[in-house]
């Protein structure tokens, strides 16, 4: 399993590695460290969407280590860079899904982030693990969102609770909780509308959905996972900050990692948002949702 995870993550980082980190590896070759080394490294890390704040932190740390450890050759910096990147990615706590059923997972994210497909992949993953899974289609605002989730539910062979398009998302969540209890469901996954951070009323609706879950299941939602589109880079971080203002996010699922050269945003998510990455999307198949492994991720960047 560990080898499979490492291979999936490595393969999904092909574009990021080829576009940027191969240049980082080339930079940290056999030459002596110069001011140009630091400037080029800074440019490359920003290009990989590590983020300006996180990049400046990394370069400052490496400069300090170069002084403290008498690092003179650029090739010696690669080991230090890997260690500093790894230090940004603390191991997250296991998913909080050990409560008396139903365990409730709220999924949030903007339209087009890959949220609906990610929900299907999550349902498939937990069903394969022997869990009884139920979906709640609480995205009642977007046209055809309910139908889209319904198609995925049939595809992965799990039940779904729906309401009318334009209906009350809170009512859908309430009905889903009652259905989950009566059916002996282990895991209830709730879809929510793809809210843009500029739409205050929709953010308020998200808080309402969160409150309905918490009032009807103890400590729910037990996880609130934010789906971010890796191809949007730093724009996704701006979205994430607004979602954090609306509800307590417990982790990130980074979708479409295999489709971007901006994989460095994982470090910005950890440093600037203080959120663990739980899963990464490594392809279009139902099994292509991989549990995030920090060591495998960093090795994959330099493979």
Can you give a write-up of this model?
It is a single chain. The protein is an alpha/beta fold and 303 residues long. The chain has 2 domains: 86 residues, SRP54, nucleotide-binding domain (Four Helix Bundle (Hemerythrin (Met), subunit A)); 190 residues, Rossmann fold. It is built from 12 helices and 8 strands. It has an 8-stranded mixed beta sheet, sandwiched between helices. The two termini are 19 Å apart.
Task: State the gist of this model.
By secondary structure, this protein is α/β, with parallel strands linked by helices. It has helices at about 1-10, 15-25, 35-45, 50-70, 75-85, 115-130, 145-155, 170-180, 200-215, 235-245, 265-275, 295-300, and strands at about 105-110, 135-140, 160, 185-190, 225-230, 250-255, 275-280, 290. The radius of gyration is 21 Å and the shape is elongated.
